[in-house]
Amino acid sequence: MSKIPPSPIYIFRGHAEQINSLEFIENNKYLISGDAGGNVIIWDMVLKRSKIQFKAHNDGILNVVKFNDKLISHGRDNTLNVWEFNQLSNIKDGGNKEESIKPEISLKVNSLNFCKFDFCYEVSHVEIGDKRDELFIAVPSAKDSSGIDIWNLTNQKLIASSIGLDQNSKTGYCMAIKIFPNNTFQNFQSVTKNYFILAAYESGSVSLWSIIINTNELMSNEKDNATVEKLWDRKEHGESVLSIDLSSDKQFAISTSGDNKIVKYNFDEGFKKEPLIKSTTVKYAGIAEVKIRSDGKIFATAGWDTNIRIFSSKSLKPLAILSYHRESVYALAFSRILSMDEQDRDKSIEEGKDLGNEERTEKHYLIGGGKDQRISLWEIY
């Protein structure tokens, strides 16, 4: 990148409180942002203006994502809400209609420790010629914030509870979670599915858990539905881990914490061996979030010191410091780098399946937001 410090190419203004969550959706056509007041805004990335605005929670937003035709929001009010996306499209900048918009599902979860939920899905063949998406979410346990619960959001059943609480380890609160399938294990014909949970803790440690789930017997006794095994544990941080992200190809993860250390975990093919560790440090302590771009080449960090930093994923060498915000940055998101196949497929999407704008945004964007209530938009190589 240029030695001259870059400037943001646009600033989104619309939130009145601290921004906690950012995410690109619909192949980068739209941006979702959530704030500490429980408000969600969906922005049109072509027009650079608010398309939808509504109050999703009675307390701060922790995370908002889109899956198929659903919007899933996680709030500090200890609820996880599922919204019908097409119903939201009828709201214009929060108008008077927001009171009549209700979530399709509202699930009671633990939000005490600011840990964002994560999700993955499985295509299940219910009958011959019939299939549906089974959506699994991982959140801190309702019994104890050190543990992890897994829910099947499709049928709203708890299928694994308090993962990690029986390990006699003093990890403190679970602070960050990533759940993903073991693709070498999966078999569409089998009812037994294997998932991994990468969990980061208040103690500064990161653990990998293997979860084997019997998706055909989701009974009330969750212990009958999942077999749990800790594969490894590493303590690389001296302070509480604040964020962890996993590369799209599942070959590595990066964690950040209340200290000034950035840690990369390089995984073996089966994930069972302890990862190879590589780390670097920055000048100031407190890195609230880390995000890896979808092509895995670079990652970004959000600092309490108000700066966004860009690094090479391979070498961990710093590439740029993005300075605009006057207060701490808490949330980041990269636009997705689309493959040629995805770009061709995107062109064939029928009209009317999104919010109405067919133009695609394929630029290499990075966005950041935080305490100053503004969202900065940057164009990165």
UniProtKB/TrEMBL annotation:
The lineage of its organism: Eukaryota, Fungi, Fungi incertae sedis, Mucoromycota, Glomeromycotina. The keyword DNA-binding does not apply. PANTHER family: GUANINE NUCLEOTIDE-BINDING PROTEIN SUBUNIT BETA-LIKE PROTEIN 1, TRANSDUCIN BETA-LIKE 3. It comes from Dentiscutata erythropus. This is ASTRA-associated protein 1. SUPFAM superfamilies: WD40 repeat-like. It comes from the Eukaryota. PROSITE patterns: WD_REPEATS_1 (PS00678), WD_REPEATS_2 (PS50082), WD_REPEATS_REGION (PS50294). InterPro entries: WD40/YVTN_repeat-like_dom_sf, WD40_repeat_CS, WD40_repeat_dom_sf, WD40_rpt. The keyword Repeat applies.
